[in-house]
Amino acid sequence: MLIDQLNERKRFTKAENEVVSYILSHPQKVTKLTIEQLATVTFSSNSSIVRICKKVGTRGFSDFKIQLAKELSSFAMGGGRVEADIPISPGETREEIAGRILNLQHQTLMEVYSMLDLEALGRAAALVDQSDMVYLYGRGESLLALNYFAADLRRIGKISKSEPLDGFNRIFHYENRKNMTQCAVLLSQFANNRMLIQNFRDLKAQNIPIIMIHGNPENILLKQAAVSICFHNGETNSKFGSFSSRVVKQYILDVLYAMIFSLHYEKNVEHVHRYAETVDQWNRYVHGIER
Hints:
Blueprint: H1 2-6, H2 14-25, H3 27-30, H4 35-41, H5 46-55, H6 61-77, H7 94-114, H8 118-129, E1 133-138, H9 141-155, E2 159-164, E3 182-188, H10 194-205, E4 210-214, E5 227-230, H11 243-263, H12 265-290
Parallel strand pairs: 1-2, 1-3, 3-4, 4-5
Organism: Candidatus Lachnoclostridium pullistercoris
Pfam families: HTH_6
Protein name: MurR/RpiR family transcriptional regulator
């Protein structure tokens, strides 16, 4: 395990051990730091940190943080990790299956929380807050998560429109909305399908800022996005369900919505109350017609 390797102090130089001591004392905090921030607080250098990462078998600091977050989530559950693609084993009882899925969701939430880029989420929240119209793009389960996000935005009076990445929704209709402040949210696990890339280019051509929420840190579009929020993608296409990725996407969107809500807390509380009253009135009307 990574933490066991860090505790083998003889493999590190004196300077490297200073960094290792900080990591072992503040593991949760380290998962949220950039390599530059860790170098600053430990009075070391980026190259020293990279050498430590290589010595414990990780590819670099980003990979190191992912592995560290995984171990922290395993410790929190008091047991081993649950495989994301096929979390159950043959012959398990109903109780064991239920426990496996519970542990998988807990494991996933702990990992995504440990790796959250709060600064990027804050910038995304401000961008959505300042926009008159928010376009939401996804396909499959990503689109379902965005539809829930759209429903939440509706509660606080924010206009949004969800669009499937299916090839029938080129961005021509935005021409009539040039006087509106607009932004777009693109949600994709792999962020590599052709329709996503085409929609990204169409949005850029319209000068609409893009928030990319994705699980592909190597994506070529990221540098052109206004905000990039990357999550660890622990699933492959060889899976029997999208248990882990579904939890990740929904959690990130829920955090984003909560940050948007908090920017105008009192006003949004009033919005929610008015929304509830409107729904109640509509329900009374519908029930009256039915009778």
